[in-house]
Amino acid sequence: MIGYVSVLFFIWIIYSVIKLIRHYEHGNLSASQIGTRNPVKPIRTAVVLGGSMAGLLTAKCLSDHANKVIIVERKRMRDTTGSIAIHGSFTHIFLNRGYEIACKLFPGLEKELENNDNVIPIDWGCDMDWVAEGKKMVQLPRGAIGWMVKAIQRNFLENILRNRVLSLSNVEIQDGMKFLNYIMIDSNRITGITCVKDGEDYAVPTTIAADLVIDCMGLVSPTVSRLAKLGHIIETTKVNCNLHYLSQLYKQPEELKFPLRYYQPYAPDATTGALLMPYSKGVTIATLISYNKSPLPRDQKEVNEYYQRFPAISDYLSKCTPISEISSYRKEGNELRHFEKINLDGFIALGDSVCNFNPVFGQGQTTAAEQVLILDTLLRDLKQGEKLSCKRFQERAKAVLSVPFALAAFSDLRFPKTETNSTILRKLAPIIAYPLKKILLDSSKSTWTYRCFTQVLHMRQGYIWTFADPKLLWNILTL
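Given the sequence above, the corresponding structure tokens read:
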């Protein structure tokens, strides 16, 4: 009987994987043509709302396809030397796929980042010391996965990209401006925005007309409420694990190798974790992670004691010296906004404005870069007189986002106190949790499973086919 059930389950897995691949395979595009300009220039004026990472990548993409690009940002971009994101000083990593797209989008970026003290190259298969499900994942020989990952300060990278975007002749900055609302001439088309100088809410609004408006305002974006008042209701899928993390910078002795150590929280009881990764040459950033409102320490003494739960990290930090205050950040978890379900021309949403994650797998910046790649591809293929299909963009963005969102959401739903507004996700959670846990556990023993998991995690081109790998499926079923 058990053998019969196993065969049926195996058949169901194969069927589900094939459906998944057929549905999403078009989303993971080649980055080889990014930066190639469309001679038609299909957009006269584009407005980008938000000047952080997603906004900068989007503005550079649009500069190749629009006569004029206007960035509207509440903070003073010209006076900022770091990240303008509220979580910009915390742990960030550009996964391989995102780094590839950014370097294609900004010619010369890779060379500029080479041998810079703020950029630490990481061999993910060899350097990563990862404990998942209470088991340490295997480590591969150096160079075995064939590509590197970059640990880059968010402040540093964003500053470089901002200076490059500001130097573009067809990009205009409207900073210190607070977005107010969208302008709609009929029920299905956005034709511009209104904004006002920050702090002058009662002043006469400034109107900016545009052929295309792109929301890159991220977590704080008011777009959902603004569009609701204009008659467009955006459905949202939420998975809230009530995430809290604390980060602090440490000076490391010269004789210590840079660290990359991760104790991932795992269900049902291990609701805390820790991460140690390079920040810049000689400096490391340590982060404590809490799920489901599990309490974290309140001062330096408690922090030092708390890290003793994670021996590999505690041992490393005992040789280092704290050089910054402890920073705290909270967020509910994961949210996917279904812009693909509305039919609205002249407007798209991108980055965290569409989907934001629990950063448990570090895919946020890379998914934003993937969406910019989709936008670049659609704009580059437009012919004279054709208009961008905003709905098509949102559908393709949803395809790219679905796998990383599911990876983070179903990982969080294994914790009993995690909340969701989706009945379907709640019912699917126990089913999906089974292979996910199997993959993480088998990654502690099988180099093949770990390679496959790394391919998916880094969203390498064609990664969706990894789910159909027979050896991976066999390892999951026979573990």
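Residues 2-24 form the longest helix (23 residues). Try to locate this feature in the token string yourself.
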